[in-house]
Amino acid sequence: MSDRPLKLPARFRLALLGKGALLAGLGAGFGWLGVEAWAKWHWHLLARLSGVALCAVAGGFLLWAAGLALLDVLRGEALVSTGAVALKSRRAGYSLKLPSGRFVEYILHNPWQRLTPGKTYTVTYGRHSGVLVAPPREEPAS
What we know:
This protein is an alpha+beta fold.
């Protein structure tokens, strides 16, 4: 595996800014729902606490993911890595697994060629967000 630093393309910085803003908005929405659950629900205390906890976890995760996207926008760093293996299933939201164990994903959908599960690819992705910023290139079988 080789991780070479690279400049993040401007169009993907803009796309990551949009994705980060969307995730931050969703996270803030869950925060608002948590406040509403606490302030306006007239149910039992346990139900109110459960609603607040659920909203806090969901909102916190979304804000964390938004922060990673925005960090890539600000720093503009991408990494190139070889040996990324296409996953058989994308149910978890990830598309490829790097030799380091880290997962990378498409920004929202795959705008490039379809990946063949189990094959290895060279990928370019945002350093912090793990979002692909260039088409994966299939590596020759060894």
